[in-house]
Amino acid sequence: MKRSILACALILLSCILLSGACALADPEWMYPVSLETLRDPQDVLRLVNRDHLLDASYPDQDIEMYRLVDVTLPVTKGSHCLRQVAHDALAELFAAAERAGYSLYVGSSYRNYRTQEVIHYNRVKRMGYDDGYSQIAGASEHQMGLAADVVSWAYKDSFQESFGETLEGIWLRENCANYGFILRYPQEKEQITGVQYEPWHLRYVGREAALYMTLNDLTLEEFTEEYQAALSRYERELEAGQAQREASVSL
Ligand SMILES: [Zn+2]
Question: Cα of 152 to ligand 1 centre, how many Å?
Answer without folding.
Answer: 15
